[in-house]
Design a protein that fits this description.
By secondary structure, this protein is an alpha/beta fold. The protein contains 13 helices and 9 strands. The radius of gyration is 19 Å and the shape is globular.
Length: about 300
Amino acid sequence: MTERLGLIVPTLDAGSLWPQWLEALAAQTRRPDFLLAIDSSSGDGTAELARAAGFEVRVIPRSEFNHGGTRQWGLGLMPEAEIVLFLTQDALLAEPQAIERLVEAFADPQVGAAYGRQLPHRDAGPIGRHARLFNYPAQSRVRRLEDRHELGIKTAFLSNSFAAYRRSALMEAGGFPRNTIMNEDTFVAGRMLLAGWKIAYRADAAVHHSHDYGFAAEFRRYFDIGVFHARNTWMMEWFGGADGEGLRFVRSELRYLGRHAPWLLPSALLRTGLKWLGFKLGRTLHEGLPLWLKKRCSLHAAYWSRA
C-alpha cells in the first residue's frame, strides 16, 4: 500500500483506557501518515494526551457532535489522505498488524471500504460477548450489491469503530450524512454498494470493542436504530428490513446463553422485548412524539436539537 493513510478518532473523556489505546496505536506496523482527534470538550486530559502522541486535535462543543457530520468535517481537515481510517476511543487495536491487514483490502481497486473484526473486551459479559461473536465472524468476506439477495440488510453492515474508506469512493457515494442519529457507516456502505463498490470485512484485522448495555440503554439504542430506518427508507427498499436478521440474532443469543450462561436467559428475553419495543417506536411512531419524549427515548438526545 502506497496510498497516504489518515486516522480520525472522535473523543470525549476517553478515560483510563486511553493511554493503552495510544500505546496500541504506536505499536502498529503500519502507522497512519496523518492523525486527527476531534474532541468534544473532554475534561479528563484526553485531548492533551492525544497531542502528546502526535495528533492534531480539534476541540468542538459537545452539543455539536454528530456521528456523520463530525466525521465528514474531519475528512475535510486531511485532504491529502487517500485512505481514511476511523477508530473509536474504546476500540483497542488487538495486535500490531491490525491496521496493516485492514488496509491490505484496498489492494483490490473495487473495494471502497473495509472494516475489521471486533472482539469482546476481556472483561465483557456473556451478552456483550455474544453480540461481537455473532456480528464479527472468523471468516473474511468481500460483499457486493448482488449479495443482498443472500444477506439482506447485512450486506451493508459496517462499523466505524474500526473501518477504513477509499476517499474517492466515499466522495462518490456522497460522503457521510451531515445529520444522522447513528449508523452513518451503514448509510455510506449502502451508497457505496449502489455505486458499484465492494465492502470488505477483514477478520484478520481486529480490535477489542464491546458494550454491556443496561436495559434502558438497549431500549434507547434500538429506538435510535428505528429512527434511522424510518428516515432512510431507501435502505429497506434495496436491502430489506431488519426483522429477519433480528430474529436470527435472538435465536443465536439464546443458544449461546443456554450453553455458557443460562442464568442470563430471562435477562436476554427482557432485553429482546425492550429492543423490539424501542425499534418499533422509533421506526413507526417517533414523528408523532413530542420533542421532550423523543429525547427521553433516545440514546443520542442531542440529535433532536438539530433534527
